[in-house]
Write a structure and sequence with these properties.
With 534 residues, the protein is α/β, with parallel strands linked by helices. The protein is built from 19 helices and 16 strands. α13 packs across α15 and α14 packs parallel to α17. It binds ligand ME8. Pfam families: Anticodon_3, tRNA-synt_1g.
Length: 534
């Protein structure tokens, strides 16, 4: 494979590296679910994928939380990281790398990177005065704060006045280069609303920002002045690079960048857009490195108008949600219900209704009733007909032939909700088609060939829907595939090379004639609200 083809064949995606001040909440699960769906989709496309997630462990927020709990910061992080990893397992998140910013190898990468930026003359010592929100780990302009200097993102937290000598990064040097970047690569920041926010911010003029702190122990020492500690964000962003190192590779920038750089997509929330779309590319330019392809800033899950969060104190615990309803249900709700990029709410009644309507009724019932008919009318195997033999004007064939590419485009655009809508529309058409064609009546009339055409078309449409939904609901898709007679496990993408096993499965019409079908049983049990909320 040529270098260029190898590049095209690879796909690297990151979630934010989560602060481990507290256990993950539903807002931490949200981008991770989205990144996992995207990674799974790219694997289905035959790409070699690196899916990076991890934890951001330094800084004042974590140091203070650990102190308040009587733990050392490292003990605290070790404990909380386990909570993240176990949630990712529960949610069927198949990440390839979990980077912790307290890893020794990360220290080496940060030091080398700092050195490059230092040598390019972009770091200097100066006085930092301003309001600092520890929950955001960010200096705020007065106009960004609420009354009495409370943070707009964490209205229960007051920003603190700081006046100290710090090292600064010369962001102002990169004003023009960044503006050029946004112009040359309009897709660098997505969606368009986020791009506009960044253009406005940069258009107001960029100011240098401090990249070190005094009076903070929990972090890496500044290589040129160990009395100062590196600002948590300077170290955290570099976690994306450290994560690319092969497990036994020497921790050098060259090694880290050799295979997976540049990263294709950084998936982040809109609160950390500036760091990723402004500071990060400027830091990379300063170090003489190429830039990631895209930064996608999604919206917030909100409750009572506020971002759900650990620091805000309005978190929803995803663990009982997954325990009660299952991983697929949680994954499906957030990706289907909320247009990726916009804010959304979690509403448990709506959650139950959507899941029951889409997965239990429309998709599950369609498979179940069709399989039962195939048992009765076709001896328990796929009708003896090929997709090619089905007439081109067959309603489901016409819809199915367009579906794969339409949904692939939606995934590529991270438009998960459009992908689900298109797939579920095709499923509803399947239900309508079978009602109209009434194969039970055709059977009574002795029209066996017609019965077989109808059942084949429906089974094949359900298969295609299951395949295209597999990045989102891998367990349900696996069950559907198994009942259609395949040996498949979409949930465990590490064990099988899905794209090779399922070559051409994005196309309508590939279900093999006479394949032995499995026993019909419901692929998605109807959900019920807990007693107290129904
Ligand atoms: O910002 N709705 O970590 P973090 C949607 N360590 N997404 C939400 C959310 C909500 N209510 N709450 C959190 C940090 N998130 C840094 C990142 S990256 C090098 C360093 C998501 O744990 C959102 O994507 O506070 C947010 O950006 C991310 O969690 C990480 O939040």
């Amino acid at each position: 494979m040529s270098f260029e083809n190898a590049e095209k064949h690879r796909f690297a995606i990151t979630t934010p590296l989560y602060y481990v001040n507290d256990l993950p909440h539903i807002g931490s699960a949200y981008p991770t679910i989205a990144a996992d769906a995207m990674a799974r989709f790219q694997r289905l496309q035959g790409k070699s994928v690196l899916f990076v997630t991890g934890s951001d462990e330094h800084g004042q927020k974590i140091q203070r939380t650990a102190e308040s709990l009587g733990r050392s910061p490292q003990e605290h992080c070790d404990l909380i990281v386990e909570g993240f990893k176990s949630l990712w397992d529960k949610l069927n998140i198949r990440y390839d790398r979990f980077i912790r910013t307290t890893d020794d190898r990360h220290a080496a990468i940060v030091e080398e990177f700092f050195q490059r930026v230092w040598e390019s003359g972009d770091i200097y010592l100066s006085q930092q005065q301003g309001w600092y929100c520890v929950a955001c780990e960010e200096f705020k302009e007065e106009r960004e704060l609420l009354d009495d200097h409370y943070c707009a993102i964490h209205p229960n937290k007051q920003a603190e006045w700081r006046d100290e000598e710090n090292y600064f990064f010369r962001l102002s040097n990169y004003q023009q280069k960044l503006e050029q970047l946004y112009q040359d690569q309009p897709d660098f920041i997505l969606p368009a609303t986020r791009r506009n926010e960044v253009l406005n911010f940069v258009g107001q003029g960029l100011r240098d920002f401090s990249i070190s702190r005094r009076n903070l122990d929990w972090g890496f020492p500044v290589p040129v002045d160990p009395k100062q500690t590196l600002y948590v964000w300077f170290d955290a962003l570099l976690g994306y690079i450290t994560a690319l190192l092969d497990p036994d590779a020497e921790p050098t920038l060259d090694n880290a960048l050799s295979k997976w750089w540049p990263i294709n997509i950084h998936l982040i929330g809109k609160d950390i857009l500036r760091f990723h779309a402004v500071y990060w590319p400027a830091m990379l330019m300063s170090a003489g490195l190429s830039l990631p392809d895209r930064v996608f800033g999604h919206g917030f899950l909100v409750r009572d108008g506020l971002k759900i969060g650990k620091s805000t104190g309005n978190a929803i615990d995803p663990v009982p949600l997954v325990d009660r309803y299952g991983a697929d249900a949680v994954r499906y709700y957030f990706l289907k219900e909320i247009e990726f990029g916009r804010d959304g709410v979690f509403d448990e009644t709506r959650f139950v209704n959507i899941l029951n309507a889409d997965l239990a009724n429309d998709l599950g019932n369609l498979l179940n009733r069709t399989l039962k008919m195939a048992q009765k009318y076709c001896g328990g195997h796929v009708p003896d007909i090929s997709g090619e033999e089905i007439a081109a004007d067959n309603f489901l064939k016409a819809v199915g032939s367009e579906l794969g590419s339409k949904v692939a485009q939606a995934y590529d655009d991270l438009a998960f909700s459009s992908a689900c809508d298109a797939i579920l529309t095709s499923v509803r058409m399947g239900n309508k088609y079978i009602d109209e064609q009434a194969p039970w009546a055709l059977y009574k009339q002795g029209k066996q060939a017609d019965v077989e055409q109808v059942l084949y078309s429906v089974l094949e449409s359900v298969r295609l829907a299951a395949y295209l939904l597999s990045p989102i609901i891998p367990n349900v898709s696996t069950q559907i595939y198994q009942q259609l007679g395949y040996s498949a496990d979409f949930a465990d993408t590490r064990l099988i090379d899905v794209s090779t096993t399922f070559q051409n499965h994005q196309t309508w019409g590939i279900l093999p004639a006479k394949q032995i079908l499995g026993e019909p049983h419901p692929v998605f049990q109807k959900l019920e609200l807990p007693e107290e909320s129904s």
